[in-house]
Amino acid sequence: MANQPMVVSEQLESIVQSMLEDHAERLAVLATEIWKNPELNYKEVIAAKLLTDYLKENGHNTTQPYGGLQTAFLAQYQTANFDASKHPTVAVLCEYDALPEIGHACGHNLIAEAGIGTFIAATKALENSNLQGRVRVVGSPAEEGGGGKVRLLHAGAFEDVDFAMMVHPSPLDILHPPILAIDHGIAEFHGRASHASLGPSEGLNALDAVVQAYNNLAMLRQQLKPKQQLHMIIAHGGDRPNVIPSYTRMEYHIRAPTQKDIQQVRAKVALCFQAAALATGCQLEQTLDGDSYSALMSNHTMLSVFKHYQEKQGTKFPPIPDLAGGSTDMGDVSINIPSIHPGIFVGKPIMIHTKEFQMLAGTPEAHGYVRKAAASMAMLTLELLANPLLREKVRAEFAASKLTFVG
């Protein structure tokens, strides 16, 4: 990852740091209140109000609902002579939905804190500079299922955004987390019911079909490439043992490192289902639901700037373990707009989506790490506004990466 020359003045960097220090206590309270009131996807009413109220208190108008989503929001600041045809727009994203039963075990309360902090600090520096551009903070609900960012993309919420960024709490500092693409699919088999003892030959056994499909997929696994994954359950296998099932349903996930990989595995999975239907005489209905996400296409040019400012604040990036990775709707943003989604250490090397991480996300020690990340994102924002050569390099990398990543 090549180092980029930094052009933003130390005076503006000092404004960013001072702004975050001045707001540190209030931002921590904001994150803690969200942590205390976990809300599931598309129900983040309290969180959205806390965040938009904070923005309004600091002089920023907000739009909510946004992009057709009730708990999404937008705030923006643009310079007096802003011209969208000449000057860039940078979007900082917030997440704030929680998980069932274990609340903010993914640390989305801290993501919201980082996003709001970045926006507050970057806009204050921008007010005190000769730079031209526009900075937005976008509140994106429903990352934990529901695909909030995907819906915002489809609604056109990012059409005039040039660069996007967010951070995510993690067991370690990692610039390019291995975020995989994911398909959420459903396969339904329709057979014909019959008495299992008196007339089995009159039936078409949908349970046989779904079991055969499961076995087909299990055998397919050994032919998959590294980090191509299949996860599946039989969600409905029939109703009574003395009735040959006429309806069964499998729910499955496909994960892979790129969109090209997803497409390849998707085709093989479809053949597994079709073979099961053919062998049993059942009818197949296969669908993808709205929670399918792209893999993350991190922009390494942007990451190099983020890394510079993180290291300047004392952050060290350890060797990266060979992790399989999860999935996020930020992946869909990243294949449409040059983006970053680095992981940030927040105090202890604890895996996310655990009760232990849920407790960590509510501790005072986490906020210092979040504040550093917000400063680095704010400085990356200013560097993008200030440096046309950096913007050109980011865009060139994005175009080249998309050819191999998406096709």
From TrEMBL:
Q: Which family does it belong to?
A: Belongs to the peptidase M20A family.
GO MF, one annotated term: dipeptidase activity
Peptidase M20 dimerisation domain span: 187-276
Organism for this UniProt entry: Ramazzottius varieornatus
A Pfam family recorded for this sequence? M20_dimer
Gene expressing this chain: RvY_07723-1
Q: Which InterPro entries match?
A: Amidohydrolase, Bact_exopeptidase_dim_dom, Peptidase_M20, Peptidase_M20/M20A_hydrolases, Peptidase_M20_dimer, Xaa-Arg_dipeptidase
Instruction: State the source organism's domain of life.
Output: Eukaryota
Question: Can you say what this protein is called?
Answer: Peptidase M20 domain-containing protein 2
Under the heading SUPFAM superfamilies, the entry gives: Bacterial exopeptidase dimerisation domain, Zn-dependent exopeptidases
